[in-house]
Design a protein that fits this description.
The structure is a homodimer.
Chain A lengths: L2 E7 L12 E7 L8 E9 L3 H5 L20 E8 L9 E4 L8 E4 L5 E2 L16 H13 L7 E5 L4 H12 L3 E6 L2 H9 L4 E4 L6 H8 L4 E6 L3 H8 L2 E9 L13 E5 L1 H7 L2 E4 L9 H13 L7 E5 L4 H9 L6 E5 L6
Parallel strand pairs in A: 8-9, 8-11, 9-10, 11-12, 12-14, 15-16
Antiparallel strand pairs in A: 1-2, 3-4, 3-6, 3-16, 4-5, 5-7
Helix pairs in contact in A: 2-3, 2-8, 5-6
Chain lengths: 340, 340
């Protein structure tokens, strides 16, 4: 291979993105500067936050400019290195800095070394990446989860959800997952959930949450917003903590005002706390959390399921699978075979 | 006077209460038991929380039963005492335990002694009562207000609002009040507010808040809910703290679902914290807060404005003044002249 292939943002979608919002381009493989490395993508990430970057609207981080390579994390094999810390054949991971492309020039300060003996490669974009850190800090810091509590997680079979269920179980809490299908529900039960609500099969979602959380919901990790949020908010226990991690249910109407039930009265009565959550606020604590997660992975206490699409040409398709809830487990794109 | 007169709850209102929801009754003056006191009301409280007690719906405290004397705080003069701590002529205050009546039998554990040398009688149902404690803990504990921050308070000329403005100024924050009229706005400026938004005169309330809070809102003490809430939520600074203290704007549609704009995305982007607040959760810290408030009162740093209706027969009218935002300052009912 002598060319680099990349997906560039071509237009801002309204509501749900489509493949037409990107263009698939080719260019030369870049040269690493005097301190940088050149990495070849093995796995690339797709994640809900990317929807927010496909917009000129105010967000917690700047959007991708039209014509630029789409933002994204990745695991790569070092091909060339001008950095003392890395040599060809090493594996590196970056949360956002790879981009949707086959080759990337990376600064050593922007990557972490992958230690394959701790966990297989895909885990480094999962339990040991943004998803794991999100589940860990959303539950244990923002959510202040305590043993014996009832924890509800929406999008429970998804990338953050499958890890949150396992951390909740490890921490002595009772986790209830909310997910779309029986297949996903079965996986949730394997992934630590004591009970699962299949929301598409529940005519009265509020009652279904009440039935699985008879003493109320102590911690709610909200990955979706929308009607699932509404059902849980009507079942809060006193002093409940609601952590707003994502709003994927709003993806189809991204940027439009979200109109619906409001829960100020319930929030007051429960003296609940609702917190907006961004894992980037925990940068300085992630090394320690990652050590714990790696220990759980090595001990077999933390298992992820992956939904892997092959081929750089399928990046948009993989991302759209995720936005439309078709994936089971962490969605990744495998761009090249794993070296032995 | 040989009879006691009381207001009893006759029916549960739908939406805004009316005088027909109570009946004005007479009965014998009760006898204090072996450890109790008999007090004669001087001032009785009316407060928004009472609306929540006029309902069989789930709330943070049980509602008043039909036929029972309406709940409420009061300041009374001790007429008879079987309690060692009190003698006739003393003044006592209770946050909720007096009821809408002229005479009440009170247990000494349920009242506090009024020290008139610290502050005039009405202050004991205000800065040194629930309103003062609410403003103090909502700002300093739940809101974690810091010097230099921008604090927005809705219902700023009201009982909690007028105290919150003064505490914010004492704490080195810049307080912006939201209130209904020019008269109230003028009082807000006296009461510590650096800037005031008169919401009835603002065609674009969101822009008006933005113009007075150019770096965003760090702390929002929300006494109202509704459209004022919406305007502030669209102006949150990063790491903003929103304290849900009351929802008086919903009084007219009490018990109905509150439908409107939702701010999950803004909450996430700002990493804001929204907390439901009840002053009763701070019971064990109130003695210390009350000492500080009393010190500020004595030093002339904490001044309240009172809106005093006279006569036990006007209790419902005073309460309805409050619910319809006609009062200026803390609304009380004076049931008897203050003894010299």
């Amino acid at each position: 291979m002598t060319v680099n292939r990349h997906w560039r943002l071509a237009s801002y979608p309204e509501g749900m993105p489509s493949e037409a919002n990107w263009t698939f381009t080719e260019g030369p493989i870049p040269e690493p500067g005097p301190t940088a490395i050149l990495a070849r993508a093995i796995y690339l990430d797709v994640a809900p936050y990317m929807r927010g970057r496909m917009s000129p609207q105010k967000n917690y981080a700047p959007g991708v400019k039209l014509g630029d390579v789409m933002i994204g994390g990745g695991i790569g094999e070092v091909i060339e290195s001008n950095a003392a810390q890395y040599k060809p054949g090493d594996f590196v991971v970056t949360d956002h800095g790879f981009g949707w492309q086959q080759y990337a020039v990376l600064q050593p300060s922007a990557v972490r070394k992958v230690e394959r003996e701790l966990a297989p490669l895909p885990y480094w974009l999962d339990a040991l990446g943004l998803n794991g850190m999100t589940a860990y800090f959303a539950l244990l810091d923002a959510g202040r989860m305590r043993p014996g509590e009832t924890v509800v997680v929406s999008a429970a079979a998804g990338s953050v959800g499958q890890i949150a269920g396992q951390i909740a179980r490890l921490g002595g809490a009772r986790a209830v997952g909310i997910t779309s299908s029986a297949t996903k529900a079965a996986w949730c039960r394997e992934a630590g959930y004591a009970d699962v609500v299949e929301y598409r099969n529940e005519p009265d979602l509020r009652a279904a949450v009440a039935n699985t959380c008879v003493a109320g919901v102590d911690v709610f990790i909200d990955n979706t917003g929308g009607p699932i949020h509404d059902a849980v908010m009507q079942n809060l226990a006193t002093y409940a903590r609601v952590v707003i991690v994502g709003s994927i249910s709003l993806a189809a109407k991204f940027g439009q005002p979200d109109i619906g039930l409001r829960f100020q009265r319930q929030t007051l009565i429960a003296r609940a706390t609702i917190r907006g959550f961004l894992v980037s606020d925990y940068q300085h604590q992630q090394a320690e959390a990652r050590r714990r997660m790696a220990e759980w992975c090595r001990a077999g206490l933390m298992k992820s399921r992956f939904d892997i699409v092959k081929g750089i040409e399928n990046m948009p398709q993989a991302f759209l699978r995720l936005l439309t809830s078709q994936n089971l487990g962490k969605q990744l794109v495998q761009v090249a075979d794993e070296p032995a």
